Records
---
Amino acid sequence: MLAMLEASGFVCCRDAVDDRALARLLGACAPIAGLERSRSRSGATYGIRGLLWSSTRLRFELETSGVSALAQSFLGAAFPIDAIFFDKQLDANWSVPGHQDRLMPIETGTGVPKTIRNDVAYAEPSTETLGELVVLRVHFDAVGPDDGALEVVPGSHRRGVLETDAIRAVPLSDYRPCVVGRGDVLVLRPLLLHRSGRRASAGHRRVLHIVYAATQPSDGPRWKALPHSGLQQTPPSPSLGRRS
């Protein structure tokens, strides 16, 4: 699977998380009352940023569910540096144009932030550092082509950081929808060009999006410290932006 990830920039791990673990992960993503980083529309919460700092359960559940172990199978060592929950539904529907995931949370004072989101500084690491990260998208629902599925341009991560005009020049026909089932985990390189459309049917497209690193960057800002841990140089012992 590592060879496929390097060649295509993405790979789908089928049935990677069982129903019990999915239920525990979903509980860890539940919005905290009054939390500003919870985004709601029509009474429905559709996005929660900064889960690594707002949910004390999440890192534990990532380990016990096997999600962190899956990340380690690609990186050799891995610890989470960001986590976001999305719930695309008819009452909270959206489309996202083609883009790369290039903003990552950094420790205050270790670099110049590009933006501040819910009191967390985000900066764009070097192309080399971005190329060393993996994103794991845990799916709580089956997603077909008409369900607001993530669409990717295979191999586009190998082009490095793309300017806006270059991204806009990529035809929609180059994008391929990622059809997934409940419990599947889509593994991506952050520089893989991706987009998503609006959901055309009732139901949910709930996704937990986690970014993993193997080490602290050697050429730029430090990853934001996780709660009660200090800045991590190595991942914990395994126990196995932008909306998309």
---
Amino acid sequence: MDATGEITRLLDRMGEPGAESAEVLDELMPLVYGELKTLAHNNRYRWHGRLSSGTTSLVHEAYARLARGEGAECDTRSQFFALASRVMRSILIDNARWHSRQKRGGAAVPVSTSEVQMVSAERSEELLALDEALGRLETDRPDLARVVECRVFGGLTIPEASDALGVSPATIKRRWSLATAWLYRQLQEG
């Protein structure tokens, strides 16, 4: 069985009653680790501005949150990566908030050095502004917000996002255009 088929089989098993998701995730991780690492690397580069430590920490933190059962069940490889994108977004936002608190002299919250390196202090405000705008979009149009998460935080292509979200590629293209225009206006006004 090829890797994609094995991933699908494991995801099916994860959704079965009585299945221990952490055990299934342990089997799944070697198959998806390389892609998660690439996803984390791309997110780190986008939000840190230069290459430094933290990519592995981001993957491991995402794994820990997925093992705790954060998020929803997924049936396909693309849905798994959409979920992983959402988890990585959450981790990066938490890290950006930490930077923001430090910048404003807020109470220090213990965070490991590798976590602090995930988002640069310079880009943290930009990431928080995007997250705030994405939160408003999610309230009005959750379908558009999911596309942004898949494309921006997941690095999914249009066909992959189509598979992950269960809609046609043409719908993904339309939603992507609408979402980026809406976010651009929101960020320009803010």
